[in-house]
Amino acid sequence: MTLDSSALVRAARRQPVDHTPVWFMRQAGRSLPEYRKVREGTGMLESCRRPDLVTEITLQPVRRHHVDAAIFFSDIVVPIAAVGVDLDITPGVGPVIAEPIRTRADLDRLPELTPDAVPDITESVRLLVAELGETPLIGFAGAPFTLASYLVEGGPSKNHEHTKALMYGDPQLWHDLCARLAQISGAFLRVQAEAGASAVQLFDSWVGALPRRDYERFVQPHSAAALAAVADLDVPRIHFGVGTGELLPSMGAAGADVVGVDFRVSLTDAVARLGEGYAVQGNLDPALLFAPWEALEARVKEILDEGRAAPGHIFNLGHGVLPSTDPDVITRVVELVHSYSAR
To answer: Which of 171, 185, 302, 328 has CA 20 to 30 A from 85's CA?
Structure first.
């Protein structure tokens, strides 16, 4: 078997598969005791830049859960830290930017990303590909809108007031900022793909804060530019955002092969909105991993049944694994996805 014939890659390319492939966003993380142990005393940013740790953490859920793909262990702010932005990932808060970017002069503090700024990422991917064998690795980067929101707000935000004030108040500066971030995200994806990742995912945590018209005006061109950075490398491109039910067709049109669907929209509705040109990924509510098995089993089967109507389906959560999730439940869901979809 080659990586191109793996269930993950075939489903992403809308080709027939023997079973529905499954992986989970944040499958490598705080839900795993082995993750907490190996990360003890090491900050998040350092963990993401140490090939030994990145390799071990990325492999942990593959060993434990037997998922169909590994997701590269990283954080969306790793590439902007790599170009010199002063930031830290604060436990319980998230990325915190020392000096937010809100003026034309601030933009000068954000240079382009070149591969020589992240040699550790290339090394990590190569180590992982060697260890994973026939299991594909998915590369990962944050999308321009979400990165811009962190940079402009100075950290996580519920309302994105500074972001929207800049976006609507100074559209040219907004586009210049997002164009720079699209280069950074695209280059980060390309480094991973050239080092051996079999697919990539562009992750847009906050873009559901926008209506579709504004998404298409202010965001879509920049997400498209990031995804275009790997267009010639023949790796499937997954595009996922949170709260994006109204944006799905526009996110697909940005250059995705696979459109991730969060848990607020049924796969049936997502497929109807997207049409035949896209595979879908999703979309179990992460909170249902805490439900009684009978209820969880029924919902997993419903999602798999809905996914059969799509040109390709990759089973996943509709967002990331919650930290207090029982890992044994995740393993059991993987087994169910494999057995039920193979029938």
So the answer is: 171
Q: Which residues are catalytic?
A: 26, 30, 39, 75, 150
* Assigned token pair, 31: 């839900």
Strand partners, 259: 239, 280
Q: Bridge-partner residues for 163, per DSSP?
A: none
We report the CATH number of the domain holding residue 303 as: 3.20.20.210
Closest CA to 316 of 305, 300, 327: 300
CA dihedral 30, 32, 37, 39 (to 10 degrees): -40
In order along its 343 residues, the chain shows pLDDT tens digits of 678 899 999 999 999 999 999 999 999 998 999 999 999 999 999 999 999 999 999 999 999 999 999 999 999 999 999 999 999 988 888 899 999 999 999 999 999 999 999 999 999 999 999 999 999 999 999 999 999 999 999 999 999 999 999 999 999 999 999 999 999 999 999 999 999 999 999 999 999 999 999 999 999 999 999 999 999 999 999 999 999 999 999 999 999 999 999 999 999 999 999 999 999 999 999 999 999 999 999 999 999 999 999 999 999 999 999 999 999 999 999 999 999 999 7
Domain that holds residue 248: 3-341
Question: 293-307 and 267-274 helices cross at what angle (nearest 10)?
Answer: 20
Q: How many angstroms separate the first and last alpha carbons of the chain? A: 21
**Distance, CA of 94 to CA of 155 (rounded, Å):** 7
pTM: 0.97
Q: Are 183 and 111 in contact (CB under 8 A)?
A: no
Torsion of CA 315, 235, 30, 55, to 10 degrees: 140
Counting the structural domains of the chain, the total is: 1
